[in-house]
Specification:
Length: 158
Amino acid sequence: MKRQDYISWDEYFMGIALLSAQRSKDNHTQVGACIVDADNKIVSVGYNGMPTGCDDDAMPWEREGDFLNTKYPFVCHAELNAILNSRTKLKGCILYVTLFPCNECAKAIIQCGIRKVVFLDNKYAGTKENQASEMLFRMAGIETEQYQKNGQDILLSL
């Protein structure tokens, strides 16, 4: 008889997004993303970080101050990294992401053909950027769904 306590596809893919977020060096917000095709195959992952080739020890990670001394003009979001890291077409794929996408990432998600976004947290709900993302997703017919936590812990020992 097969075991019955295995994790669901949604748990697996959100788990991969959460694990990917652990690669982020951001001292405030770690975001991870996992893109899955129609056959439940992972086609890409990403996390928020500095662009390839930019020394993240030399880059600013601050949230406040002069714009060029903050992380905001430099950090590449997890969703965009996952899209750019992909080596295949993403039309019809599902994006699992630990934070609801910003309006800039929403545009990239739409342009590459992702059909659904499953997100863990929406801590910026109600902001103008969040409202713009929701409007773009609605207009483009992208389904969004908040991941429902079940309280299960998955322990990884490395």
